[in-house]
Amino acid sequence: MATSERIFVQAIRSYGARHGVDVDVRAGGWLIAMRRGEMRRFAFGYDIGLNSAIAHRLASDKSATSEVLSLAGVPCIPHHLFLNPKLGRNVVGPDWREAMLALLHAHPQGVVVKPNEGTSGRSVFKVTTPADLDHAVGEVFSMSTGLVISPYVEIEDEVRVVLLDDAPLVAYSKQRGSDWRHNLDAGAKPLLLEDGAARAACVKLAAEAARAVGIRFASIDVVCVDGAWRVLEINSGVMMEALAKLHPELVQTTYDAALDRVFEATW
Ligand SMILES: Nc1ncnc2c1ncn2[C@@H]1O[C@H](COP(=O)(O)OP(=O)(O)O)[C@@H](O)[C@H]1O
Ligand SMILES: [Mg+2]
Predict the structure, then answer these.
(1) What is the CATH architecture of 80-151?
(2) Which of 114, 174, 219 to mutate to test the pocket of ligand 1 (most atoms within 8 A of CB)?
(3) Residue whose C-alpha is closest to residue 48's, from 212, 214, 254, 267
(4) Which superfamily is assigned to 53-77+154-255 in CATH?
(5) Least C-beta-crowded within 10 Å: which of 8, 128, 232, 234?
(6) What's the pLDDT tens digit per position in 55-100?
């Protein structure tokens, strides 16, 4: 087994060895074919295959997530969608830049510009001036079909909750380093939450968010702003590479629980 193999793949191999599941890793480790007897299942990227297609699409789209959460009355950070003008005039009207500038002016503390389908904190820009806005928009549109703009908020704490069918399997706070963003890829450190009021509040909010989009296995990021918790994003792929360096057993137990559901299903 290559040592560079993702923890996600290693965890599936380990589950397979203990549960009689043949595991065949393809496409440079990205596609994982699993077979137990007649049952054939797939994992792809960090998606273990439990979520419906629509739940996956809603979660993978920051704008759709924030719309669905607002509809359900779940507190969240708004994400306004702008489609790439390269899609053509029939798709994208002429007023997109004015609408972006209006959002910037409505939020003197600044806005955050990022790809609508997240990329682990890459191309996430804090913007306070029209010149910054043009730069950020150019960068994001050079690689993404959709861009989202949110008001910039002072995040007091950012917590990730991994949920499986309403049960919280993992909850940790992201201790950011020098950067203002909380991505583990950008150096933030996971710190498991002790039982208590903050953990309970985060888990409750994450479960409400999961129910609103109809997602079964997900990691849900919630942020504390002015003392109140709100949903920032839902990830339909559960990535625990950084957490596994500190808590390998917890990560394995979590993937085991999800894979039990994958193989108990009778569809
Ligand atoms: N509106 C915002 N205000 C303040 N910080 C933000 C805002 N949006 C994102 N961030 C910071 O940037 C990080 C990355 O943003 P996120 O929406 O999670 O995108 P990605 O899918 O790329 O991880 C977050 O973890 C958070 O710390
Ligand atoms: Mg994120």
Answers:
(1) 2-Layer Sandwich (3.30)
(2) 114
(3) 254
(4) ATP-grasp fold, B domain (3.30.470.20)
(5) 128
(6) 999 999 999 999 999 999 999 999 999 999 999 888 888 899 999 9
